[in-house]
Structure to design on (226 residues):
């Protein structure tokens, strides 16, 4: 039972490089999310997709783009990576959008930008 | 600006003791308060949640206490076990809204 799968698990980039983080869920959920987790900051929502074909900005969207490829997959792209984007990135999914819907998280992608 | 303030940052408790983690918020529109548990190398997982129509919610050894007038809520872990060692995040939002605001986390260590 895979749940939410994120790839890669670790990545090191140089400033200015681009990168796409992949996320896939097998729970037939409609909504998907991208968060970043930084020490002393908790988790902050970057973008979310309420349903296939829609995406919306969260709390910290600057510097990121997303694509809801199909119902299962939601990718996060860094076009020109900056050291401030060094973080642990989590993808999550839920049956429907809304904070009261339990969100199921992947195990994260640890991204370092030099 | 941190929407939800969480304390302590870290907590060490003896096995069998009570672990208490506190959170406070300012936005009076918040009406949904979940707690998430995160083990090292894993993503967070929903542990328990409360809405302000009740002052307490209990699930097994985990209890949320809610004080609407003080705008505070807390997680109590009774009979703490080494397997409870994890980072705990409180969160708050407007029920059904898209954005869930997380606290900064508490790293709990339960020593045998």
């Amino acid at each position: 039972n895979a749940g939410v799968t994120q790839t890669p698990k670790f990545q090191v980039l140089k400033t200015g490089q681009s990168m796409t983080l992949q996320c896939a869920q097998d729970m037939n959920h409609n909504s998907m999310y991208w968060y970043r987790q930084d020490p002393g900051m908790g988790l902050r929502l970057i973008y979310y997709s309420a349903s296939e074909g829609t995406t919306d900005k969260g709390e910290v969207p600057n510097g990121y783009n997303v694509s809801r490829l199909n119902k299962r997959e939601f990718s996060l792209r860094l076009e020109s990576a900056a050291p401030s984007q060094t973080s642990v990135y989590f993808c999550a999914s839920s049956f429907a959008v809304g904070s009261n819907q339990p969100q199921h998280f992947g195990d994260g992608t640890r991204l370092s930008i030099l | 600006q941190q929407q939800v303030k969480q304390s302590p940052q870290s907590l060490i408790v003896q096995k069998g003791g009570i672990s208490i983690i506190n959170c406070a918020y300012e936005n009076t529109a918040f009406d949904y308060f979940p707690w998430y548990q995160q083990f090292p190398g894993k993503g967070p997982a929903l542990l328990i949640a409360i809405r302000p129509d009740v002052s307490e919610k209990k699930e097994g050894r985990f209890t949320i206490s809610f004080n609407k007038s003080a705008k505070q809520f807390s997680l109590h872990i009774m009979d703490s076990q080494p397997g409870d060692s994890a980072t705990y995040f409180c969160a708050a939002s407007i029920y059904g809204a898209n954005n869930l605001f997380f606290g900064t986390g508490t790293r709990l260590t339960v020593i045998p």
